[in-house]
Design goal:
5-stranded parallel β-sheet; elongated; binds 2-acetamido-2-deoxy-beta-D-glucopyranose; alpha/beta; receptor; 8-stranded mixed β-sheet; Rossmann fold; transmembrane; 2 domains
Length: 503
C-alpha cells in the first residue's frame, strides 16, 4: 500500500512540470523524527516549518528556484527505530540530506551511519556533549545551541559573580535522559573552570522523591543547579524554604530551555495549600532559558505554523512562540540550500557531503527568527536568559540577564539586581571541608532510597561509552531483501565496531 503511494508520488514528482532554469537539482530529504505528539519536535510540529521553508525559498525568485526538495518523513521513536528507518529507506536510494533525529540515542547511530555514507545531517537536537566530537560525528551540523553552549552561560556567571562551588541535581529517567545530558554539559564546562562540583541524581521512576533528603545534601554548596520535572523542582524549593535556605544564602537555578509554558509566571502555582510557600520560595529561584529573538518575518512564520498544527488537531499554547526545534529545522533547510549552491558554483554537486558540511560551518546567516551563527565546529552559538521573580506580590517572572554566546558577553536588564547573585551573607566554610562532608551526605541519602549518582565525572565516562558504543543491531532481520550484499557487510561491520551494551 505505502509502496504504491510512494511509487505514485515518485511518478507524479517526475511528471511535474519543471521550471526552466539554469540549474536543476532534485534533493531527497529524509526527516527522521518521532510521530508521537507528546514530543515538542514531533513530525506534525516540524513538518509545517519545513514546508514553509520550501515555499519561502520558491518565492525568493531566482536564487533557490533550481532546487527541488523531495521531503520524506520517517517515524523514529526516541531509539533504534531511527537507524532502522534510515537503513530501510536507503536500500533503494540514499537520501541527500537528513534532518533530525533530535533524541540523543536515536541521533548517535544515525549520524554515525550518515557520516559513513557521506550524507550531511542537520539537527535541531542531538544536544549532548558527545556530539561535539566531530571526528566521529563528522557530518553533523547542529542548528540549536547544544548543552555545552548553554553551560558556558553558567561558566560566565561563576566567573562574574565569583561563585566557587556548585551542586547539581538532575532527574534521570534512564531512557531519553534529557536532564542527565543537560547537566553533563554544565559539569564538563564548570570542571575545566576548577569549580568544585557535587552531583545528585534522582531516579524519576521512584514513586516518591524525598526532597527533604535532597536538600540536606546541599549544605556546603553555594549554587544549586537543577534539571527536573516542574513538580520535582517545586518540591525541592518547598523543602529548601522549610529549612530556611531561601533567604539569600544559596543561589538556586533551574534549567528549562525548551518548553516556555513550564517556566515563568505562575510556575509555582498548583492550587494546593502550598501555593503561598511556593511563591515565596520561587522568589529565589532563577530559571535559565533560551533567549529567543523575534523579527517581523517570524510572526508570520509563527502564525502559519500554528495554523497548520491546529489543522491536524493538535493543541498549541497560544501564548507560546513556536519552539526552537521547529524554528531550527526551518533554518536547517535554508542553511543546506545556501551551502549546496556554493558547492555547485564550485563545480561540485549534492553528493559531496564533506564539502557541503564544511560550507555550513563557521558562518552566520539570517534565520527565520534572527541571525544564526554556526561555529567552526558546526555547532550553533546560543543566547540565553536568566528569568527571576521580580514582582513578589503577583509572582511574575522577568528576564534579568541575557547572555550572548557568540561574544561571551552579558547584558544586564533594567530589573537586574547585583545582590540577588552575590553571596555576601553566608559564612564561608573552608574548602577542605567539602570532600569529606559531601561523601557522608551522599551515603545517607542512598539509604533512603534516593539513588545517588557518583560524580558526573564517572557519568561522563559512561556517556562517552554510550556514544562510542552503539546498539547491537541485527540489520539482516530488519532490512528488505533487495539490500545489496555489499551494503550488508558494511552495515554489519559498522555496527559491530560500535556494539552497545545497555547500562
Ligand atoms: C507517546 O509518548 C508518551 C510519553 O513518552 C507515552 O506515554 C505515550 O504512550 C506515547 N504514545 C504512543 C501512541 O506511543
Ligand atoms: C539565612 O539562613 C541561614 C540558615 O538559617 C543563616 O545561616 C543565614 O545567616 C541567613 N542569611 C540571611 C541573609 O538572613
Ligand atoms: C510543557 O510544560 C507544561 C507545563 O508544565 C506541561 O504540561 C507540558 O507537558 C510540557 N510539555 C512538554 C513537551 O514537555
Ligand atoms: C509575566 O507577567 C508580566 C506581567 O504581566 C509580563 O510583563 C511578563 O512578560 C510575563 N513573563 C513571562 C515569562 O511570561
Ligand atoms: C504570511 O505571508 C504570506 C506571504 O507573504 C501571506 O500570504 C500570508 O497571508 C501571511 N500570513 C499572515 C498570518 O500574515
Ligand atoms: C572548491 O573545491 C575545491 C576542490 O573540491 C576545494 O579545494 C575548494 O576549497 C573549494 N572552494 C570553495 C570556495 O569552497
Ligand atoms: C557529482 O560529482 C561527482 C564527483 O564530485 C561525480 O562523480 C558525479 O557524477 C556527479 N553527479 C552528478 C549527478 O553530476
Ligand atoms: C572561520 O571564518 C573566518 C572568516 O569568516 C576565518 O578567518 C577563520 O579562519 C575560519 N575558521 C576556521 C576554523 O575555519
Ligand atoms: C555581543 O553580541 C550581541 C548580539 O549579537 C550584541 O547585541 C552585543 O552588543 C555584543 N556585545 C559585545 C560586547 O560585543
Amino acid at each position: 500500500m505505502t509502496c504504491v503511494v510512494s511509487y505514485c508520488l515518485c511518478v507524479w514528482l517526475i511528471l511535474l512540470p519543471v521550471k526552466a532554469s539554469a540549474m536543476n537539482e532534485d534533493i531527497d530529504v529524509l526527516v527522521i523524527l518521532p510521530k508521537n505528539n507528546s514530543y515538542l519536535f514531533s513530525i506534525s510540529m516540524v513538518a509545517p516549518a519545513i514546508e514553509y521553508a520550501k515555499q519561502r525559498m520558491k518565492s525568493l525568485k531566482g536564487m533557490y528556484s533550481g532546487l527541488n526538495f523531495n521531503v520524506h518523513y520517517e517515524n523514529s521513536n526516541c531509539g533504534d527505530e531511527a537507524l532502522f528507518s534510515l537503513v530501510d529507506r536507503s536500500c533503494e536510494k540514499k537520501p541527500d540530506l537528513i534532518l533530525g533525529p533530535v533524541c540523543e540515542y536515536a541521533a548517535a547511530p544515525v549520524v554515525r551511519m550518515a557520516s559513513h555514507w557521506n550524507i550531511p545531517v542537520i539537527s535541531a537536537g542531538a544536544l549532548a556533549s558527545g556530539f561535539s566530537h566531530k571526528k566521529e560525528y563528522s557530518h553533523l551540523t547542529r542548528v540549536a545551541p547544544s548543552y555545552l553552549k548553554m553551560a558556558e552561560t553558567f561558566s560566565a556567571m561563576f566567573r562574574r559573580f565569583s561563585w566557587k562551588n556548585a551542586f547539581l541535581i538532575y532527574e534521570d529517567d534512564m531512557d531519553e535522559r534529557n536532564c542527565y545530558f543537560t547537566l553533563e554539559g554544565v559539569h564538563s564546562v564548570l570542571k575545566t573552570d576548577n569549580v568544585h562540583i557535587d552531583a545528585l541524581n534522582i531516579h524519576s521512576k521512584d514513586n516518591r522523591v524525598d526532597s527533604d533528603e535532597i536538600i540536606k545534601n546541599i549544605h556546603d554548596s553555594e549554587v544549586i543547579i537543577m534539571c527536573a520535572a516542574a513538580d520535582i523542582i517545586r518540591d525541592i524549593m518547598l523543602a529548601a524554604h522549610r529549612r530556611r535556605l531561601t533567604n539569600g544564602s544559596y543561589i538556586f537555578f533551574n534549567i528549562e530551555l525548551f518548553n516556555s509554558s513550564s517556566y515563568g509566571n505562575g510556575s509555582w502555582k498548583r492550587g494546593d495549600k502550598y501555593d503561598m510557600d511556593a511563591k515565596q520560595a520561587y522568589a529565589t529561584l532563577n530559571t535559565l532559558t533560551l533567549l529567543r529573538t523575534v523579527k517581523p518575518e517570524f510572526e508570520n512564520f509563527s502564525v502559519e505554523v500554528k495554523k497548520s498544527i491546529q489543522k491536524v488537531g493538535m493543541r498549541h499554547h497560544d501564548s507560546d512562540n513556536v519552539n526552537i526545534f521547529v524554528e531550527g529545522f526551518h533554518d536547517a533547510l535554508l542553511l543546506y540550500a545556501m551551502a549546496l549552491l556554493e558547492v555547485m558554483k564550485n563545480g561540485s554537486n549534492k553528493t559531496d557531503g564533506v564539502q557541503i558540511t564544511q560550507h555550513m560551518w563557521n558562518r552566520t546567516f539570517e534565520g527565520i527568527a534572527g541571525p544564526v551563527s554556526i561555529d567552526f565546529n558546526g555547532d550553533r552559538y546560543g543566547d540565553f536568559s536568566v528569568m527571576a521573580m521580580m514582582d513578589h506580590e503577583e509572582g511574575t517572572y522577568e528576564a534579568v540577564i541575557n547572555y550572548f554566546g557568540i561574544n561571551g558577553s552579558f547584558q544586564m536588564l533594567p530589573r537586574f539586581n547585583n545582590d540577588r547573585f552575590t553571596l555576601t551573607h553566608r559564612h564561608q566554610t573552608a574548602p577542605t571541608d567539602y570532600a569529606s562532608k559531601s561523601s557522608g551526605g551522599l551515603g545517607v541519602s542512598a539509604v533512603t532510597g534516593i539513588i545517588v549518582g557518583a560524580l558526573l565525572g564517572t557519568a561522563l565516562l559512561m556517556a562517552f561509552y554510550f556514544f562510542r558504543k552503539n546498539y547491537r543491531v541485527t540489520i539482516e532481520r530488519r532490512s528488505p531483501r533487495d539490500c545489496g550484499i555489499g551494503k550488508h557487510r558494511q552495515l554489519r561491520e559498522d555496527s559491530i565496531r560500535s556494539s552497545f551494551s545497555t547500562a
